[in-house]
Design a protein that fits this description.
This is Transcriptional regulator. With 153 residues, the protein is α+β, with helices and mostly antiparallel strands. The protein is 55% helix and 18% strand. It has a single domain (2-152), classed as Arc Repressor Mutant, subunit A, CATH 1.10.10.10. The chain has helices at 6-16, 24-36, 55-66, 91-107, 109-122, 126-136, 147-152; strands spanning 2-3, 20-22, 40-41, 46-48, 51-53, 70-76, 83-89. β6 (70-76) and β7 form a beta hairpin. α2 (24-36) packs antiparallel against α5 (109-122) and α2 runs parallel beside α6.
Length: 153
C-alpha cells in the first residue's frame, strides 16, 4: 500500500497532470480513485454532499500552498457558469514531485503506473469522472446533491 502524506498526494496528482490540474473536484476524485483503485493510503474519504471528499487532502492543498509547492487560483469553467480551482506546481513543487516519482518507481511501481493511468484517463474529463465515481461507488454518492443529475446526463 502506497503511503503518501496529504501534501505528497497533492503534488503527485498535480504533477501527473503535467504540473497543472484544473478543478478541486477533479483533485478530490482522482485522490479517491488512487485510494480505492490504485492502492493508495491514508486520505480518509467520506461520503458528503459533494460525493467522496477527503478533509486530509484538502488540508494537504493548504499545506502545499503554504509551503510554496503549489499555486492555486480560479478560472471560469468551460461554460463560464461557475469558477474552478486551478492547481499548479511551483519549481519547488516540481522538485518534490520528481522525488516522489523516483521513490514510487523503486518502492511502489504498480501504484505509480495505476496513478499515471487514472490521471491520464480522467484529469481533463470532470463530468465523466464524476459519473464514473458516482456509478462505480454509489455508497459515496448517497449524500451527493448532484449525483442524480450527473448519472442521468
Amino acid at each position: 500500500m502506497a503511503r503518501l502524506s496529504p501534501v505528497e498526494w497533492v503534488v503527485l496528482l498535480v504533477g501527473l497532470a503535467g504540473g497543472r490540474l484544473r478543478g478541486g473536484t477533479v483533485l478530490q476524485k482522482l485522490g479517491f480513485l488512487g485510494v480505492v483503485e490504485a492502492g493508495g493510503c491514508c486520505l480518509g474519504y467520506t461520503p458528503t454532499r459533494y460525493g467522496p471528499v477527503s478533509a486530509e487532502l484538502a488540508r494537504g492543498v493548504d499545506e502545499a500552498r503554504r509551503r510554496g509547492l503549489v499555486r492555486v487560483h480560479t478560472e471560469p469553467s468551460h461554460g463560464g457558469a461557475y469558477t474552478v480551482y486551478v492547481f499548479e506546481l511551483t519549481g519547488e513543487g516540481r522538485r518534490l514531485y520528481e522525488e516522489i516519482v523516483e521513490r514510487l518507481r523503486r518502492e511502489e511501481p504498480h501504484f505509480l503506473e495505476q496513478m499515471e493511468r487514472l490521471v491520464r484517463l480522467w484529469a481533463d474529463k470532470p463530468f465523466e469522472l464524476l459519473r464514473y465515481v458516482y456509478s462505480a461507488y454509489p455508497e459515496y454518492a448517497k449524500k451527493s446533491e448532484i449525483a442524480e443529475r450527473i448519472l442521468e446526463a
